[in-house]
Amino acid sequence: MKSACIAILCCACAVLCLPVSGQSAPDAGSIEDVPVIEDEGITVFREKEETGSTVTLDRASIDEVKPLDLAGFLSSSTGAAVTRNGGYGMVSGISLRGFGSGRIAYFINGIPVNSARSGDFDLSSINIASVERVEIISGAANAVRASSGSIGGAVNIITLPEAGRSLRVRAGVSSLSQLPAGEPADFADTQRYSASVSGSSAFHDADRVFSWQVSGFATRAGNHYRAFDQFGRAVRLDGSEVLDGGAGFDASMALSPVLKVNAAVHAYAAEKNVAGKLYSGYTGHQKDVQSTASVSVDAKRFLIDEVSAACSVSHTFSLLGWESASEDSVHRLHSVSALGNTNLFVSADVQMLAGFDGRFSVLDSTNVQDTVLDADGAFWMGADWRPPLGWQTAGRVLVSPSSRFVVSGSGVVPVPRAGIAWFVTDSTALKANVFAAYRLPTLNDRYWTGGGGAGNPDLKSERGFGADIGFSYRRSGVSGGVLSALAEVVELSAHASSLEDAIIWASGGEDGESRLQPMNLGEAWYWGASARWESGKIGVGRVSALYSFLDSRIRTGRYTERDRLRVPYQSMHRADLSLSARFGGLFASVSAHAESERWTTMYNTISLPPFATLSASLSHTYSFKSASAELYLKAENLAGASYQTIEGYPMPGAQLTAGLSVSFD
Known about the structure:
Elements (H helix, E strand, L loop, with lengths): L1 H15 L17 E2 L9 E2 L6 E6 H7 L4 H9 L2 E4 L7 E4 L8 E5 L2 E2 L20 E6 L14 E6 L9 E12 L12 E14 L2 E14 L3 E4 L5 E4 L4 E15 L2 E17 L7 E17 L7 E18 L3 E18 L4 E16 L6 E14 L10 E13 L2 E13 L4 E12 L3 H5 L1 E2 L2 E2 L7 E13 L7 H5 L2 E12 L2 E5 L8 E5 L2 E12 L6 E15 L17 E11 L2 E10 L2 E2 L7 E2 L2 E13 L3 E10 L17 E11 L1
Parallel strand pairs: 6-9
Antiparallel strand pairs: 1-2, 3-8, 4-5, 6-7, 8-9, 10-11, 10-39, 11-12, 12-15, 13-14, 15-16, 16-17, 17-18, 18-19, 19-20, 20-21, 21-22, 22-23, 23-24, 24-27, 25-26, 27-28, 28-31, 29-30, 31-32, 32-33, 33-34, 34-37, 35-36, 37-38, 38-39
């Protein structure tokens, strides 16, 4: 087991030590987005060059996939693993390379939004109609896109509108049916009705450009559906009704060619009935309120021409209210965050980076005796070096060492990272990274009480290390021929990581029924590989496939590697296959998804069986002079597969969504 991890680490270190010498590289100050695929289908952008595995998906890909929510979009488009407690609005989360939402850094327009209370971020609070693009970094992110314990990666959700856009209004409605509905009398309660609207525009005045976007959405989900329990018996599920909605305003003003100010306000509210595990009879009512307000300034030139800088200040508020027969609780959390970074362009080949982030939080909870005041933060420094290459070596190389210095009650802890990328051509790259990991316990980890769980104020911080290597090919520009049709995107990667004192909430006993509490495990190892392929345009269609392998081991107490205990809720094998075709205004797609078994407890006492689902969609776009309308149908889990991603919470069977979206320019 360790041999696989050590092999990946050695390969990454070997690549990092490759010698370089020779000619100059392109201007290091270029930070503009560069579209590298512009054909029909998903558009991928290459941003400022990185040594990590980075993919950016634009608005066109969201409109094409038509996901139910942002978590579903990330799963279908990037292969991120998803766990859900049932239908729409129930607890859901994604994981990257085996690490869940609490070990992924989330950003909205570059501003960190992970909760100080739980460590994660609720993706359902984002109106997917307001999202312009999403940036996903798998594995250790650079210092700017990192946070405490973000060993899984980073997700940056961009809602700021495009600078050059004229007035645009977009609206949509959809209705989802669970098939079969169960009893005809309550067919309406099986539905999910959703409506969204967004408007955006831009104004030009000399050197100033002002752009804005306003958006809103509302959803009512009955979440009544039929499923099968572990004994194959048909059951009808209810008690998980959801009514939620949100609104947002984003604005950006370019005061000059080198100075931009951004502001954003987002709010979300939900009323949810939450059912417990199958046959538990446990139900409750949950109230969610969340808001985020932020202001940021981006100066491409600061004081002198060789320095750029950016800073932001944000405030987030969350309210979680819970009512049940056995417990009532209210949790209010206020957090104020600040972030700043500077870049010094020493030369065309060398760029120095430095910055800081900090957060102050106030938690007022009925499950905590006293109000909790908490502060955390870090500062970082690093460099991007593009060493000259010899005449016999093609392409360009980027060497990127950096380190975060996490400030905590125990002092200042360095968290180093080093990466190297060889861009053989504009389309092909080889990358390798080695990194350390450090994660502070969340407020829930330390102070939570009630609801069948209890925090542990004596928890130690997680520490670890990891490495990854990768190859990527992304066709540059638009070209034809057989080779372009065979492969537009090819990505291969291998990764390994280890955590000491990993924090996992688990029952106190091996029966899986004892009270939940956070534990510092002795050690947890993760290693895996992934492959992604997307064809070019083949006639009127495209094909894409993704496969990922992930294994892990837990060593704690009397358990060793020989016991082969795996980290809970992580499938070893995952595969996706998608076919799509466009005929004028008609678009059709078929996709299949399969996962192997997953274990549900730290002691691997219960396993969820493997499953496979089949989905299809059909849409037609009608274009007019200054408007367009799209009618679509989307069917999910066509074969009605019975499966669970979290033990005791069956997922819906066949679902059919019908929708209409209109856009005015």
